[in-house]
């Protein structure tokens, strides 16, 4: 896994061994960042279920002002910290060793994030739990873009009842990115 573009371009990132994380492939990461490239500069980025930190580090490398990484696995947290030091992006990063909903509660009260990315374990309804937690916080406003990486068969028909709407969806061979925003007030 490598950083695709920006100040840390071409640098190889570490990942942890085993099946505890599922790093987003370089091809999917490149497609994702091509879709959101206009929103990255100077943005405040929240990377939930960070794994090795590849998505948040890519955002920082491409000009994000700040990234907050949330990961509960201590081995993965160490990997994130090493990758941040290696890419020299640690000054723009904050790493939280917490369960995601706990971290959201801790962050509540801070200013909104511009982009929130989450890549939870598949088929466990974690994305629904996270969206439920986010929708009542200060972390999301009318300008926040929430991106969920999920399996192709994951449904999001419930988001409307939480005050969100699906802006777009990008399907790949085995997974998808769902782009979610707050519903506009009528």
TrEMBL record:
Cite the entry's keywords alphabetically: Methyltransferase, Transferase
Please provide the Gene Ontology terms (biological process) for this protein: rRNA methylation
Coiled-coil segments on the chain, per record: none
Named from the GO MF annotations, one term is: nucleic acid binding
Cite the InterPro entries for this sequence: DNA_methylase_N6_adenine_CS, RNA_MeTrfase_RsmD, SAM-dependent_MTases_sf
What's the protein called, per UniProt?
16S rRNA (Guanine(966)-N(2))-methyltransferase RsmD
Species this chain originates from:
Anaerobium acetethylicum
């Amino acid at each position: 896994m490598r950083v695709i573009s920006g100040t840390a371009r071409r640098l190889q990132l570490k990942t942890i061994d085993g099946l505890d994380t599922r790093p987003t492939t370089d091809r999917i990461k490149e497609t994702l960042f091509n879709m959101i490239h206009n929103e990255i500069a100077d943005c405040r980025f929240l990377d939930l279920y960070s794994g090795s930190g590849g998505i948040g580090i890519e955002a920082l490398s491409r000009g994000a002002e700040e990234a907050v990484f949330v990961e509960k696995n201590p081995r993965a947290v160490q990997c994130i910290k090493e990758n941040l030091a290696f890419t020299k992006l640690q000054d723009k990063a904050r790493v939280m060793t917490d369960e995601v909903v706990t971290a959201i509660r801790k962050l509540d009260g801070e200013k909104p994030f511009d982009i929130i990315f989450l890549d939870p374990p598949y088929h466990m309804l974690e994305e629904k739990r996270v969206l439920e937690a986010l929708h009542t916080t200060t972390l999301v406003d009318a300008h926040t873009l929430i991106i969920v990486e999920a399996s192709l068969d994951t449904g999001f028909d419930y988001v409307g009842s939480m005050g969100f709407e699906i802006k777009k969806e990008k399907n790949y061979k085995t997974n998808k990115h769902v782009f979610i925003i707050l519903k506009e007030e009528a």
